[in-house]
Specification:
Elements: E1 4-10, E2 15-22, E3 29-31, E4 34-36, H1 44-56, E5 58-73, E6 76-90, H2 98-101, E7 107-114, H3 117-121, H4 128-137, H5 141-144
Parallel strand pairs: 1-6
Antiparallel strand pairs: 1-2, 1-4, 2-3, 2-7, 5-6
Length: 150
């Protein structure tokens, strides 16, 4: 199974940027941006930057490896490399890709959450392993994600 990356993205106000996902036939859930490694990607960080630009129109700094998650998924093992990063800019007009071209993929609404464990606990975060990681580390994210000079 193809590995993927996820971006735990903090804005200037120390809020977590994530998606509220409404998908036909599925219960409401939240996720952090990211996606699969593609053949042309030079590295995992390249994949992350590409996915954040596609999904959010975002440019980031301070890309910091946080954890690698592996969990059962559709009869195989899914591996996700989770990075923390700081939002430099976000322009929704730059979003592109299958998420925006295919209406059957549902709605991707950007939300920003305070770094409070109750914010994570009150939402169904997918994948569940990432929700568990964030619930245990949400308050320490600013310390874990180094501040980069801009």
């Amino acid at each position: 199974m193809q590995p993927s990356v996820r971006g735990v993205l903090l804005d200037d106000d120390e809020r977590l940027v994530l998606f509220r996902r409404t998908v036909p036939g599925r219960p409401l859930y939240w996720s952090v941006p990211g996606g699969h490694v593609e053949p042309g990607d030079a590295s995992l960080e390249h994949t992350l930057r590409r996915e954040l630009l596609e999904e959010l129109g975002a440019v980031v700094s301070a890309v910091t490896p946080l954890t690698t998650l592996s969990y059962p998924y559709k009869g195989a093992v899914k591996t996700q490399h989770v990075y923390g990063c700081r939002l430099v800019s976000m322009d929704p007009a730059l979003r592109h890709g299958p998420e925006w071209d295919d209406p059957t993929r549902g709605v991707y609404e950007v939300e920003r959450l305070r770094l409070d464990p109750s914010e994570i606990a009150s939402r169904h975060l997918v994948p569940e392993a990432l929700g568990d990681y964030l619930a245990g580390h949400i308050a320490s994210l600013p310390r874990l994600i180094r501040l980069a000079k801009r």
